[in-house]
Amino acid sequence: MIPEALAAVLRNAPLTPEKVAFVWRVTVGAAVDRATTVELRDGVLYVQTKDATWRREVERSAGVIRGRLQALLGSETVRSLEITLK
User: Fold this and answer.
1) CA angle 60, 50, 61 (to 5 degrees)
2) How far apart are CA 50 and CA 37, in angstroms?
3) pLDDT tens, residue by residue, 16-68
4) How far is CA 10 from the centre of its chain?
5) CATH numeric code, 2-85
6) Domain residue ranges in the chain
7) Which residues, including other chains, have CB under 8 Å from residue 16's CB and lie 6 or more apart?
8) Pick the residue with more confidence: 65 or 1?
9) Environment class of 27 (CB within 10 Å of its CB; exposed 0-12, middle 13-18, buried 19+)
10) Model's pTM, two decimal places?
């Protein structure tokens, strides 16, 4: 019930960098959040990781992450992830 309510509130809120950062943190957890930075442009979430280990972890989980982001932001908001090193 709470995740559905959170998703409804988030989908209706304006799409800001702070909202994207919050949803990223909720989606991936504190450890991954600390090791990454994100920016959403034109349906692509650009993820920069602090090292190759974190890049592999995000790449390995990209499908699950994208699905969770779409559930919270809307299905057309995040169409793909681009994962690079900082």
Assistant:
1) 15
2) 9
3) 999 999 999 999 999 999 999 999 999 999 999 999 999 999 999 999 999 99
4) 13
5) 3.30.300
6) 2-85
7) none
8) 65
9) buried
10) 0.92
CB 9 within 8 A of CB 44: no
- Split at pLDDT 50, 70, 90, the class of 4 is confident
Q: Say what the alpha-carbon torsion angle 59, 61, 66, 67 is, to the nearest 10 degrees.
A: 160
How many CB atoms lie under 10 A from the CB of residue 8? Answer: 11
Burial of 47 (0-12, 13-18, 19+ CB in 10 A): buried
Q: How far apart are CA 39 and CA 48, in angstroms?
A: 9
Distance from C-alpha of 62 to C-alpha of 80, rounded to nearest angstrom? 9
**Band of residue 2 on the pLDDT scale cut at 50, 70, 90:** low
pLDDT exceeds cutoff 80 at 69: yes
